[in-house]
Amino acid sequence: MPEMIAITETLAIDERELDETFVRSSGPGGQNVNKLATAVQLRFDLRGSPNLPPGMKSRAEKLAGQRLTREGVIVISADRFRTQEQNRDDARARLVELLQRAAVVPKVRRKTRPTLASKKRRIEGKKHRAEVKNRRGRPDLE
């Protein structure tokens, strides 16, 4: 049975949709840095994923930015840690975090009109300010 990676309570992606490649890391590793491939490059075909709704896909494309290829594949590189397993978990966590942010539907802004009272307050404020500025002029000699 394929393992599912939970994004939200109702959404999950199949682990088989992820493609992980291990490469040599430029990060920490001590004497092993030039011998072991500890960095992970995680690829997730966003446009080809059958488990994500279309609205979420478009929001995820915007959030991914430069991590998204022309083909619609999200590429996440992780080399913060010394072990393959930690870097793998880090890359997956970053992908899940990105998809969770994309799952949030932005609230639709509805235009509102200013109330009559707020219009009156604004006009009163303008009149008061104009009065203050008028008093700064030269005094009348009459």
Q: What key attributes describe this structure?
A:
142 residues; alpha+beta; two-stranded antiparallel ribbon
Give a summary of the structure in a few sentences:
This protein is an alpha+beta fold and 142 residues long. The chain has 3 helices and 5 strands, in the order ββββαβαα.
Question: How is the topology of this model organized?
Answer:
Layout (H helix, E strand, L loop, with lengths): L3 E3 L5 E3 L3 E6 L15 E7 L8 H11 L8 E6 L5 H20 L12 H19 L8
Helix pairs in contact: 1-2
CATH class: Alpha Beta
Tally of individual domains: 1
Low-confidence segments: none
Helix content estimate = 25-40%
Instruction: Order the strands across the largest sheet as they lie in space.
Output: 3-4-5
User: What percent strand?
Assistant: 15-25%
* Shape type: elongated
Question: Counting H and I runs of at least 4 residues, what is the number of helices?
Answer: 3
Q: State the secondary-structure class.
A: alpha+beta
Counted beta strands: 5
Radius of gyration: 28 Å
Q: What summary fits the major beta sheet?
A: 3 strands, antiparallel
CATH architectural label: 2-Layer Sandwich
Distance between the termini: 97 Å
What is the N-to-C succession of helices and strands? EEEEHEHH
Mean pLDDT, to the nearest integer, reads 84
CATH topology: Double Stranded RNA Binding Domain
